[in-house]
Every structure is written in C-alpha cells, then in structure tokens.
From TrEMBL:
Residues 313-378 are annotated as: Disordered. This is Uncharacterized protein. It comes from the Bacteria. The lineage of its organism: Bacteria, Bacillati, Actinomycetota, Actinomycetes, Kitasatosporales. Residues 321-346, 356-367 have a biased composition (Basic and acidic residues).
Length: 378
C-alpha cells in the first residue's frame, strides 16, 4: 500500500494535492482538518527537547499499523495514547483519510464493515484477541501498557486494561445516506453511552463533570460525526481523566470511545488552589516566548500534575502581514485548552494563493513549581 502523510495544520484543505496524489496511484492520503501543535514535550522533559507530540503520534500509529491494523484504527489508537501521554491531543485527533479513487470503503485502509449502533461491548462478538503493542521503554505511558486488543465481527476494535475496563474503541463510520441525528441527538447518544461505560460518569457540572468539547468531526470523505469530551472537576479544575465519544450522525453508532486517565491524584488540585497563579504562569510564558504584547489566556487543569496552559495569539500566518486579532472575552480558567477554534475559521477567504491560519503558541507551566513543562506552536 502507498500512503501519503500531509502532517500539518489544515492540510485537508489541500484537496487538489490529495486528489492528484490518488490519481497517480497513492492508495490513501492522511491530512488534518484543523491546527496541530508541535513540538510538544512530556512532563519532566525540557521545553526545547525535540520529541514532539507529532513524533509520538506517528510512532504509535506506525506500531499499530505494522501489526495489521487499518489506517483508521491505527490513527484512533495512537490518538488515545497521545492523550494519555500529554493530557490533550494537540490537534492530531483531526485526521482525515482519503481513500483510493474507487471509493473510501474500497480502499485498503478501511475494511468492509460499517459500525452499527451498540449499547455496550458485551453486545459485540470477538473474533480475535491479542496483546496491543506497547510504547518503547523510552516512552512509557501507563495507560498504553498491558492492554488486550479485541477485534469483533461487528467491525469494532476495542482495548481492555488489565483490570477489565475498556480504554478505547474504534469503529467505521458510514459515508453515505441521510443524516438523521441533530447535534442535540448526538449529545444524548454520547451521554448515554458514556454513562453505561464509565462508573461515576455525569454529563454536567452538577454531576462533577465539565463538557470540554462538543463539535463536528470527520475522518473519511462523506462521514458526518460529532465529538463530545468530558473531564471530571477536581476542586473546580478539570481533573486527570478524559471521556471522549464520537457519534455517527447517520446511524447514531459510537465510532470512537476513550476513557483516558492521567497519573495525578485528585489531591493534586488542593483545597486552596495552585501555588503558582495564572498571572505568574503568564509572565513565565511571555518571558520564554519573548512576547509581551500578544493576547494571552491561562487555563488550569490537572493531568500528570497541576498545570497552567498559557495561550499566546499572534494573529495569522499568511496574508502579507501580522494581522493580529483583538483579544476576545476572557474564558473560564478551567476551559480545556485543546478545544481549538472551529474548523470553519480556517477556511480562509475563499480561493486564492494565500493560506491563512492562526499563529498560536502554547506554553505549559507547572502550577506547583512554576517550571515550564512544554512549549507548542502551530
């Protein structure tokens, strides 16, 4: 199989290049529909270290695809493992696969079975069980080790932890037919599935959970999905767990599920807040970036430790100038930082030679020590 990777911001907009590649014999092209951030570092790794989130994502994708997984499955499993490692996907969850010219489901990556609705994994019929490939010893991630991978007759692949709980699952969405679910219908389906799979899950702040993503998604030409993500609230801050569900808007089927945990304990939140304030974290981030003027926000969460993510908005790349946007209303400090602007904002001004997308820099600061944990940019 020949495969072309266009691993960068908004590369799904390069439709002509993708189509030309396929017409010249490339079986599949992987692109991204929004911003991706690189290089990123794991907690404890210096901010100038070259091992980025993209490198880790592709190394895990390669491990799963070399074990015989389809492109769609390998990308989804790598996505889960990146969240486990860094506490966010850095935009790499917005992969879009274009198949051979004969149609997406006729191409090599996908397989024939479109996932139908199911209420729980007990309803699925296992056809093979194997150990899921673990990360290299130099990149240990507890959530990614000791997993059992189960392939089912219904076209769903899911992974089980040693304690019997399900880490993640991926199915194949439909690519044709009428869309039957509204956004609200998808939210309801996602909540019901999460409540059935995750002990103690609640879908709102009153239940101790925060909805951090509710947005359109898509991974194949013609599919229609909606992504919803929740984090538990620990002392008012998003805690070290993320539950994600993607719903096929045609059938209502779950085509991606993940229940990912960081390593920090709930006590990391602390009853009195973090020792390092948002203002102090912002000062540290500006000093590192050498930028004292760009609009900035600081958002708190907990994953491997308590941290502030400081986002500096430097306007747009392209367009012949800085084109720096004015800062908008201040967001809640605990808003999940991986909830990027909608894909529609990156569609630009229409056909033209210039490609414009935001120049964003994100710097993670340890909320207990003030140390810089990572530095990422578009």
């Amino acid at each position: 199989m020949s495969l072309l990777l266009l691993a960068g911001c908004c590369t799904s907009r390069w439709a002509d290049l993708g189509a030309a590649s396929v017409s010249r014999g490339v079986d599949s092209v992987i692109t991204f529909s929004g911003l991706v951030y690189y290089p990123a570092t794991a907690p404890g790794v210096p901010a100038d270290n070259g091992e980025g989130s993209g490198n880790y994502f592709w190394s895990r994708f390669s491990a799963h695809s070399s074990e015989g997984g389809t492109l769609l499955t390998a990308l989804a499993l790598a996505r889960t493992e990146l969240v486990a490692r860094e506490g966010h996907s850095g935009g790499w969850h917005r992969y879009v696969i274009r198949g051979a010219s004969t149609g997406a489901h006729d191409a090599l990556p996908f397989g024939p079975t479109v996932t139908r609705p199911f209420a729980g994994f007990h309803e699925l019929t296992p056809v093979s069980v194997a150990s899921s490939p673990a990360p290299a010893a130099s990149r240990p991630v507890e959530e990614s080790t000791g997993l059992t991978e189960v392939a089912t007759a219904e076209g769903v692949v899911y992974r089980v932890r040693p304690d019997g709980s399900v880490l993640d699952a991926v199915g194949t969405p439909s690519t044709a037919g009428p869309v039957r679910l509204s956004a609200e219908g998808a939210r309801l389906a996602a909540r019901r599935f999460a409540e059935a799979q995750v002990p103690g899950f609640g879908s709102g702040a009153d239940d101790g959970w925060l909805l951090t993503a509710d947005e359109p998604a898509g991974h194949l030409d013609g599919d229609a999905l909606r992504l919803l993500c929740w984090r538990p609230l620990w002392s008012g801050v998003p805690g070290a767990r993320e539950v994600s569900v993607e719903i096929d808007l045609r059938s209502g089927a779950v085509v991606y599920f993940a229940d990912v945990r960081g390593t920090a304990a709930e006590a990391a939140a602390g009853p009195g807040g973090f020792p390092v304030s948002a203002a102090q974290a912002t000062v540290a981030a500006r000093r590192l970036a050498g930028d004292l003027t760009a609009p900035a926000t600081a958002e708190a969460d907990i994953w491997h430790t308590g941290r502030w993510t400081v986002t500096l908005d430097r306007g747009n790349w392209g367009g012949g100038g800085d084109d720096r946007r004015r800062p908008g209303p201040r967001q809640d400090q605990h808003q999940h930082r991986d909830q990027d602007r909608s894909k529609d904002e990156y569609q630009g001004t229409g056909a033209g030679p210039e490609l414009r997308f935001p120049r964003i820099e994100r710097i993670e600061v340890d909320a207990h020590t003030g140390a810089v944990l990572s530095r990422t940019s578009t």
